[in-house]
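General statements about sequence and structure are easier to judge against a single worked case. Part of our work consisted of pairing the sequence of a single chain with a tokenised description of its backbone. The amino acid sequence and the backbone structure tokens for this protein are reproduced below.

***
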Amino acid sequence: HFYIISVLWNGFLLWHLTQSLFLGVPFPNWLHGLLRILGAAQFQEGELALSAFLVLVFLWLHSLRRLFECFYVSVFSNVMIHVVQYCFGLVYYVLVGLTVLSQVPMDGGNVYVIGKNLLMQARWFHILGTMMFIWSSAHQYKCHVILGILRKNKAGVVIHCNHRIPFGDWFEYVSSPNYLAELMIYVSMAVTFGLHNLTWWLVVTYVFFSQALSAFLSHKFYKSKFVSYPKHRKAFLPFLF
């Protein structure tokens, strides 16, 4: 449900941002008003429209891949989450897209593009951030595949929902490399923003603590369930935690 909402909502925001950037179509009045409430919709000196565009693309692609994994890769148990967690997750993916859009430099209801050419804004951190995003996403996908295979037979049919010790890729270093990759994906977006965007670093901080907590609980569970669990494996950060 989280990723369905994210794909639809953030895809909607990306569509409006794309139209504004490349066709000069102003944002709808209600969206422009919402961004004003969030403290945006004004010219932000030093901020590049390309940064927010790329980050919104990354966010949408990330949600689309995770939605694909939910249907075709991951094998979930019957564990339920609290209704408060469920509601928070829905709200989070709506707000995170608006957070990205609020970083777009605005001139009235239109996006302000320095030099009137978006590609001319390309900087080294856009390239680095893109490479980090692809790298982190590839590792997260691989880790989810490894977890899914543990509950399937050689024909790809789900045969149980029990826990097994995963091996391979980043699992050789930490118990929850998928959570670590999630953090790295958000860090790649911070890099794409040029490393100076305080608002997005606050988002990264939230992701760090939420993923670290989940990783710690998973690590504790694995150690209590499996006597032979690798002792060198950390919970979240390789060689550290």
Q: What stands out?
A: Helices lie at 2-23, 29-37, 49-72, 83-101, 124-149, 177-192, 198-225. The mean pLDDT is 91. The radius of gyration is 20 Å.
